[in-house]
Amino acid sequence: MCSKVAGAGVKAMRVTVVSRPKEYRGTVEEFPRRRFGRFRETRKPRDRGGKGHEIVKELMVCASCGAAHREKQAAIEAAAVAAAEAAEAAAEVEVAVETEALVAEGDE
Fold first, then answer.
1. pLDDT one-digit tens code per residue, 8-22
2. Residue 8 falls within a domain, yes or no?
3. Which terminus of the chain is more solvent-facing, meaning fewer CB atoms within 10 Å of its CB: N or C?
4. Other C-beta atoms lying within 10 Å of the C-beta of residue 66
5. Which domain range does residue 43 map to?
């Protein structure tokens, strides 16, 4: 990220640059027929699948660049949380104004 050569013995950090949502399908295999006796087949575990994130691109960076990237990501997440809270507060104010208008119409 900083285009500098790190010295010998300096540990590198992995930084995720791009990721994407991914949905994993589960396996739907039927259980084998039960056989009695000494050579009984065990039941296979089912894979239920799920949702997650997949790394598309990651970089190997020095410790200082990794710390700077972490701070930048924390600031972006904090801004996203603040924007969501502001939108929620604006929606609550809008609902309050609408209910006051309905109450005022009912009093007339």
1. 888 888 998 899 999
2. no
3. C
4. 18
5. 13-107
Q: Length of the chain, please? A: 108
Q: Are 65 and 12 within 8 A, CB to CB?
A: no
Tokens linked to 40: 């009984």
12 Cβ contact partners less than 8 Å away, ≥ 6 residues apart:
6, 60, 61, 62
Sign of CA dihedral 69, 73, 18, 50: positive
Total number of domains in the chain:
1
> Which of 31, 28, 21 is closest to 48 using CA atoms?
28
Going by C-beta distance under 8 Å and a sequence separation of 6 or more, which residues neighbour residue 85? none
Q: Among candidates 54, 52, 49, 53, which has minimal Cα distance to 27?
A: 49
Q: Which amino acid is at 78?
A: A
Q: How far apart are CA 59 and CA 6, in angstroms?
A: 14
The model's pLDDT over 81-106, given as tens digits with 9 standing for 90+, comes to 999 999 988 888 877 777 777 667 66
User: For residues 57 and 48, what is the distance between their CA atoms, to the nearest angstrom?
Assistant: 27
